[in-house]
Design goal:
Length: 179
């Protein structure tokens, strides 16, 4: 489903294009990775953020009070520009049971990179999230410890992620059907 003609019952997953979207995405990351999981002290931003593209899941995108409920970032490998990475996938706690938010963030992350020449898409995935990624056609390459936590280095099967050349429009999730 495309993001056109969406309603307040929909969540639109798209590339962040507005300052408020980026700020809200960073706030969700702080809530998840600093406060909830305690992986970072105060802020999770790093040198990757300077080159990364943030993606956001926005509830009520056309309404009076749209809000970001999830995020992920993607970036090219600085040496092998056909290799892309996804990281910092985070969904607000009160939206984690609302359907396909995480899966749609992953879908747009890989599909938009694919449209930009990606031939390999990788992520360090927390072990508890590896089953979701496997259902989405990813495979584990190795298991590692990152920031003191078990992670899977995983690779997306690009055959399941057709290129998306309109990432600022993105994909819509109708919450009436996703719940």
């Amino acid at each position: 489903m495309n993001a056109s003609n969406h309603t307040d019952d929909e969540i639109v997953v798209r590339w962040a294009g507005e300052t408020w979207e980026r700020e809200a995405a960073l706030a969700i990351r702080r809530a998840v990775f600093c406060e909830e999981q305690g992986i970072f002290a105060g802020d999770d931003r790093d040198e990757i953020d300077a080159a990364a593209q943030l993606l956001v899941a926005v509830r009520g995108a056309d309404g009076a009070a749209p809000c970001v409920v999830g995020t992920v970032r993607i970036h090219r490998d600085p040496v092998d520009t056909s290799t892309w990475y996804g990281s910092r996938l985070a969904v607000r706690a009160d939206y984690r049971r609302h359907g396909r938010i995480g899966a749609t963030l992953i879908r747009l992350a890989v599909s938009s990179a694919h449209a930009l020449g990606c031939t390999t898409f990788l992520a360090h995935v927390q072990a508890q999230n590896a089953p979701l990624f496997r259902r989405l056609h990813w495979r584990t390459l190795e298991e590692v410890i990152v920031f003191g936590r078990a992670h899977h280095v995983m690779r997306a099967d690009l055959a399941h992620y057709p290129p998306c050349a309109t990432p600022y429009a993105g994909f819509a999730i109708d919450q009436r059907r996703a719940a």
